[in-house]
Amino acid sequence: MNRIVFSVVLPPATRIGKGVTLAYEGLGTVIHRAAVIGDNVYIGSGVTIGGRSGHPDVAVIEEGAMIGTGAKILGPVRIGRYASIGANSVVLADVPAFAVAVGAPAKVVRINREEDIPTYIKQ
């Protein structure tokens, strides 16, 4: 039903935390069945969280992370707490907590202080 109505691939086996937001009802989003997504994560439209050839594991997205529109999170990577992934970035390596990663392949360009983290989830 989700795939037909919203064009989102969200298998029932996917572990998703509380307060996760899929922008535009998940339009164009693809999430691997083995992905783990923590609480209060914001996922933009057109995001892919999937596997990578030769790697049996997939991503773990920790609490409060923000994944920008069109980003690709591929393979056994960990996106740290309150990390931000830029739009259309391709993440192939771990991103530490509070970091901002952009580009293809994504590189960390800044690590925020905990008190400077923006709130992406509407309260």
TrEMBL record:
<dbReference type="InterPro" id="IPR005881">
    <property type="entry name" value="Ser_O-AcTrfase"/>
</dbReference>
<keyword id="KW-0677">Repeat</keyword>
<keyword id="KW-0012">Acyltransferase</keyword>
<dbReference type="InterPro" id="IPR011004">
    <property type="entry name" value="Trimer_LpxA-like_sf"/>
</dbReference>
<dbReference type="InterPro" id="IPR018357">
    <property type="entry name" value="Hexapep_transf_CS"/>
</dbReference>
<dbReference type="GO" id="GO:0009001">
    <property type="term" value="F:serine O-acetyltransferase activity"/>
</dbReference>
<keyword id="KW-0808">Transferase</keyword>
<protein>
    <submittedName>
        <fullName>Serine O-acetyltransferase</fullName>
        <ecNumber>2.3.1.30</ecNumber>
    </submittedName>
</protein>
<dbReference type="InterPro" id="IPR001451">
    <property type="entry name" value="Hexapep"/>
</dbReference>
<dbReference type="Pfam" id="PF00132">
    <property type="entry name" value="Hexapep"/>
</dbReference>
